[in-house]
Every structure is written in structure tokens, then in C-alpha cells.
Amino acid sequence: MTDKIIALVDGSIYSESVCHHVAWIAQRTAAPVELIHVLGRREAPEKSDLSGAIRLGARTKLMEELAEIDAQRAKLVGHRGRAILEDACAIVDRDGVTEITTRLRHGDIVEAIGEIEGEARVIVIGKRGEAADFAKGHLGSNLERIVRAAHRPVFVAARAFKPIESVLVAYDGGRSAMKAVDHISRSSFFADLPVTVVTVGNETPEVTKGLADAKALLAAAGIEAQTRIVAGQPDEELGKMVEKDGFGMLVMGAYGHSRIRSLVIGSTTTEMMRSCKVPVLLLR
Fold first, then answer.
1. Which end of the chain is less packed: N or C, by CB atoms within 10 Å?
2. What does the pLDDT average to over 219-242?
3. Where are the alpha helices (DSSP H) in the chain?
């Protein structure tokens, strides 16, 4: 199946929001949901040799005990992963979704995404992961890795769930921005949602034409979009618009040919992504 909503749940404070957003998307698109928990390498049993320089018989006994401890730990980690999936499934089910599957995987999360994303229409992940309470100023360590690697749209859920009633699209004229507009025009998720397409920068004939083309593409799909040109820095102005005008979601290309590229793909996480309190849909 190539039309699943794939959600990554890790038991963090963002997991419940991920589940509610997944259910909301599923109800608007009639797509089935698959919930995935990845047991990462950091959860693998330790391989260090704690036996030291002791005589052979005692060393053999200690190694057997350590192997048993490792096996018990691996079993507990697996139980925890299945419990996380059961809880997530219960939330999505209570929200009215009937087609739900779960999958427990081992290994690196990005490698797992690479193997399964061909089945997905969108990948949903929380903005922060299990370490969120210990690093409040940072996004989840896997978020940027997933965005860089994924070829499907990535929906980044905010901490609190709220039904999305309006959409802001950051449009810089780049390939991924045009792909974002095309995605909106083709997806039932955006049906009946007010859409505003904004370019942050100077007004030029090229910018005006690009926004007109975006508006026309959306109009052809039955979506009446508004367009704006706003001067300033993209990270500052987009954040202000989301806050001031109450947009429920920000849509943007993960890559671009202007300053917007550095907002998501770069050596550091940007202030806009850290502070944005609404979901962000990223497209390559």
C-alpha cells in the first residue's frame, strides 16, 4: 500500500499530539494509519567487557550472567516499545480511525524511514523526542536527519493538538516551494481550508508572477488562496504571521533557492522551527 499515514511514536510528551494529528489527517484523507516505534541502537544491549582479569571459571560464569542481563534488558525494551504502540493505537482508535496497524522496528530511525517511506503519503513526527524535557531549546535530534533523508512530505506535530482551520504557505519560488503548492492542490487534506501563500522579501515582477501562478494552480483545484508579499527576514516574519493571524499550520519546502533554505536544512536548527507553536509540513 502506498497511501498510508506513517507516524513515528516514541513515548515522549509529543507522542499524544502526533496521534491526534494523525487521526485528524486520516479522517480528512480516508487514508489508513501505521504507527511505528523504532528501537534505536542506543537501546541495544551494552557490549562492554566487565569481566576484568579474573580466573577462567569465574570469568565464564560472569559472562553468562552478563549475557542474561543483556537478554532481560532487550526483552524489557521490546515490551516498552509494544506498550508505546498499544497506547498510541488506543488514542488514534478513540479519535475515530478504524484502519490502524502497528510495527516495532530495530535499528537506526532514518534507515527505517528509508525502507518504509515508499508506503507513505506523509510521515508524521513530533517536533521533539524523548529528550525534550532535557533540551527545551532544541528540536528532536532525529528531525533534521529525517527531513534530509525523506522523499515523502514530513508533518512535524507541535506539542499541543488543535484542529487546523487555516494554512500559511511559505513560497520562495524554488522547486520545493512549487512542489508544496502542487501537493496542496492535489490533497484532500486541504479541502475547504483557507490558504494564504506568502513570499518574504522584496516585491519584484518575478515574485508577483510566482504568487499569481501559485494562486492559479490552487484555484484550478477549487482552493481560493490569498497571496501576500512581506518585507523582512523569513524566520521572523513567518513566525509573526502565524502568531498574529492565527494560522493553524505552516507549509514550506525543505529546500529552496533563497534564505528560506537555511530555515530547515542547515548546520543548526533555526529559531523559527524552535518557536513555532503550530504544525509544519515540509516537502522536498
1. N
2. 89
3. 15-29, 56-94, 109-116, 143-149, 175-186, 205-220, 234-245, 261-264, 271-275
Model confidence pLDDT, tens digit, residues 255-281: 544 444 444 443 323 455 666 789 999
> Of the ranges 55-64, 87-96, 203-212, 261-270, which one carries the lowest mean pLDDT score?
261-270
Tally the C-alpha atoms within 13 A of residue 15's C-alpha that lie toward its C-beta: 22
> For residue 284, how many C-alpha atoms fall within 13 Å in the half-sphere facing its CB?
13
d(CA 3, CA 243): 32
d(CA 225, CA 3): 26
* Side-chain-facing half-sphere of 149: CA atoms under 13 Å: 17
CA-CA distances (angstroms) from residue 30 to 16, 22, 97, 132, 162? Answer: 20, 11, 9, 32, 19
List residues bridging with 267 in a β-sheet. Answer: none
Edge-to-edge order in the sheet of strand 225-230:
100-106, 33-39, 4-8, 120-126, 154-157, 280-283, 249-253, 167-170, 195-200, 225-230
Single-letter amino acid code for the residue at 138: H
**CA-angle at 154, arms to 153 and 157, nearest 5°:** 140
For the chain, state the CA radius of gyration.
22
Per-residue pLDDT reduced to its tens digit, 72-125:
777 777 788 899 999 999 999 999 999 999 999 988 888 888 888 888 999 999
| pLDDT score at 282 | 86
Closest CA to 184 of 174, 171, 172: 171
Predicted pLDDT at 261: 46
22/139 Cα distance (integer angstroms):
20
